[in-house]
Amino acid sequence: MTYKSQLSQRQTEKAIELIKDFFSKNLAASLRLRRVTAPVIVQAGLGINDDLNGIEKPVSFSAKSLNGQQIEIVQSLAKWKRLTLHTLNIEEGTGIYTDMNALRPDEITDATHSIYVDQWDWEKRLLPEQRNPEFLRDTVRKIYQEIRKTEYMLSEEFQGIKPILSEDIMFFHSEDLALLYPTLTTKQREKEICKKYGAVFIEGIGYPLVDGKPHDGRAPDYDDWSTLRADGKRGLNGDIMVWNPVLQDAYELSSMGIRVNPSVMITQLEMLDCNQRKELWFHQQLIKGVFPDSIGGGIGQSRLCMLLLRKAHIGEVQTSVWSKDTIDECTSKGINLF
Predict the structure, then answer these.
(1) How confident is the model at residue 51, as a pLDDT?
(2) Which of 69, 78, 216, 226 is buried most, with the most CB atoms less than 10 Å from its CB?
(3) Mean pLDDT rounded to a whole number for the chain
(4) What is the pLDDT of residue 50?
C-alpha cells in the first residue's frame, strides 16, 4: 500500500510551527518551567556533554580563537541543564526548558532516527523526598496530557488529523515486560505493550534484568536507574512510548527520569566500569553535592511532529542528510523528505 501524507508540505510547515509553539508553552505552564537559551557547543573534557548510552562520540573540533581548545557539539543537554539549575539558582518546584539542537554522528538512521536531533530539553528542581516512583509518574502524566492537548488542537485546525492517543498512559517496569513476554526481545516487548495499551511509560531502563542485560543502555551519570524502590524494583527513570499507527510499531517520544545523587552516580559509574569519569569537573561537582536534586528529560520535537502529523519518516518534518538508498526508498513509497 502506497503511503499518502494527510497534509501538503505547506500545511506540514504550518502544523510544525503550531505544534512547537502550543506544546512548549503548555508544557512550561504545566511543569512550571521557564525558557533558557541552550548551547550548541560546549568545552570538551569537563564531562558536561552527553555520551548517551556511554559510547557515542560527539562531533568535536579545535577553536583557533581559543588557542586550539577542543570544543564539542552537544548530543543532549542532560548534564548542562542540571548545572544551569545551580548557576541560575532555580527554586525548588520550578525548572527550565530549552530548544535543543544537537548532532549525533554515531546514530543509526532510519524512519525515526536522524543525525540531527531537536528536543525540548527540560529540568526541574525537586526536594529529596520527591525521589520516588509516584512523583516520577505524576510528571509523566502531566507531559502526556500536554501531548494529547496538542493532538486535539491539531484536529481542530486540520481536517485530516483525528485524535487517536489513548486517554491515559499506563506504567510498566522493564521487569514486568520481561515477565509478560519472556521469549521476546526488548523491542518486541515494547511493540506488544504499546499495541495493547496505546501509551505506556516503561520504568527502570538501564539496570540489568534477570538475564543480566538491561532493557536498553543508559549512561551512568544522569538518570537514576539503579535505586532500589519500596516495591523491590530498580530505577527512577523510563521512556514515554506510544503506538504509532502509521509505522505499526512502538514509538518513543521521551526519555526522562529523576537524576542521580552523589551516591547513586558513584554506584552506576562502578557498575558500568566508568570510574575514570569521577575525575571530570562535572562529576566532581556532583559528588561534592553542588548540584540540586532534579528530574528531567528530552521530548523529541521532530518525533512529536511526526507522530501527530501522521508522517511515515522523520525526514518529513525536519531537514537532515540521508543516504541515497534512504532517499530512493522513500521516493518509491511516496514519502517526500524535506
Answers:
(1) 67
(2) 78
(3) 95
(4) 75
Counting residues of the chain whose pLDDT is more than 90, the rounded percentage is 92
Q: How many CB atoms lie within 10 A of CB 161?
A: 20
Closest to 31 measured CA to CA, from 230, 294, 216, 317: 294
- Residue 239 annotated among the catalytic residues of the structure: yes
Q: Is 255 tagged catalytic?
A: yes
Query: What's 279-325 look like in SS3?
Result: HCHHHHHHHCCCCCCEEEEEEEHHHHHHHHCCCCCHHHCCCCCCCHH
| Neighbouring C-beta atoms of residue 134, cutoff 10 Å | 9
Q: Which residue is catalytic, options 239, 294, 301, 318?
A: 239
For the question of residue 106 being annotated catalytic, the response is: no
Single out the residue of 63, 49, 23, 55 nearest to residue 103, CA to CA.
49
Which of 82, 104, 259, 277 is catalytic? The answer is: 104
Whether 211 is catalytic:
no
Range list of H helices, the chain: 9-31, 78-87, 133-157, 174-180, 186-197, 262-271, 281-287, 301-308, 324-332
Residue 52: pLDDT band (50, 70, 90) is low
Element counts in the chain: helices (H) and strands (E) = 9, 11
User: What pLDDT, in 10s, does the model give residues 159-211?
Assistant: 989 999 999 999 999 999 999 999 999 999 999 999 999 999 999 999 999 99
Domains of the chain: 9-332 (3.30.930.10)
> What is the Cα–Cα distance from 281 to 273, expressed in whole angstroms?
18
Catalytic residue, chosen from 75, 130, 226, 255, is 255
Catalytic residue from among 24, 114, 119, 318: 119
Q: Catalytic residue, from 123, 252, 293, 316: name it.
A: 252
Predicted TM-score of the model (pTM): 0.95
Is 176 an active-site residue?
Answer: no
Query: Is 119 designated active site?
Result: yes
Q: Strand order of the sheet with strand 60-63?
A: 41-43, 69-73, 60-63
Look at residue 16 and give its three-state secondary structure: helix
Is pLDDT above 60 for 140?
yes
